Amino acid sequence: MKFKQLMQPRKLMQSKQPKQFKKLIQAKKLGFISALLSTAIFTSAPTFAVDLEYKGFYQRLSLIEENELDKITMGFYLVDSYHRTRCELETATMLGKEVTPKEIEIANDGQLLVPLSETLYDKFAFLRVKQKDERQNCTLQMQIQVKDKAKKEFSFKELAVVAIQMQELVDDFGSFLWFMMPDVSGVTIEVADKEDIVFIDKSLTKMMKCDDSGLKCQLAVDMELETDKPAIKFKTAPKVISPFIEK
Q: pLDDT tens across 95-148, in order?
């Protein structure tokens, strides 16, 4: 199976690392991935609009397509830099010197549905996002997440594939320093209501930990399981499912 072959070299290399080297790597892992996901592609100012270079969007989206990671995507959002809440947006328009202006879709949750386009990349396009509230200082937030936001149930095999693809993308961000990237232990599930989880297999109850609100849960996933047996079901599709990375 393709994904197992991709994961095995990573585990073998890690097992041969001296203990001191492992500790050094662990101390840097989370900061490394955080920097990759939050820098290099945005400019912001406390105005009505934010201009974002298309180059950064393209680099991340093309990694997903090249590696055929069909179950995940990169979610792009604008958040208030002080309060970390989602910014209210009016429009998002692709612009550039040789680019015909074209609006892109903004999802109900504020996700910028940026297309993958080599033409926009070659023409040095940029995305201009207009805000509704000029008082918000909006910056770009990028997030690895499950692609199908309407999905209400997952089998053990589907959870494993999602977690494996998330790990592969995290490693790809590190390029030749992939071994310094953090380990994806499972998935983080955010729901709108704590009653939205209507079924979870008994074997997973001890593997899931939720915060006090019950709206954000971290579920450890066994990436070796290939059974189609139902693992978890939701009344309403989760707001987002992203990687679970243990600190």
A: 999 999 999 999 999 999 999 999 999 999 999 999 998 888 899 999 999 999
pLDDT in tens, 142-191: 999 999 999 999 999 999 999 999 999 999 988 777 778 899 999 999 99
Task: Give the Cα separation of 242 and 43 in Å (integer).
Answer: 25
- Residue 198, H or E segment: strand 197-200
Helix or strand (DSSP H, E) at 140: strand 138-146
Tokens 């010197």 sit on residue = 97
Alpha helices in 104-240 (DSSP H): 118-122, 156-174
Residue pointed to by tokens 């770009």: 140
In Å, how far from its chain's centre is CA 126? 21
Q: Give the burial class of 217: count Cβ atoms within 10 A of its Cβ; 0-12 exposed, 13-18 middle, 19 or more buried.
A: buried
Instruction: Please name the residue that has the structure tokens 């999802």.
Output: 107
pTM for the whole structure = 0.80
Share the mean pLDDT of the chain. Answer: 85
**How do the residues of the chain divide into helix, strand and coil, expressed in percent and rounded to 5?**
35, 30, 35
Let me know: does 94 contact 101? Beta carbons within 8 Å.
yes
CB 244 within 8 A of CB 187: yes
- Partnered with residue 74 across adjacent β-strands are 144
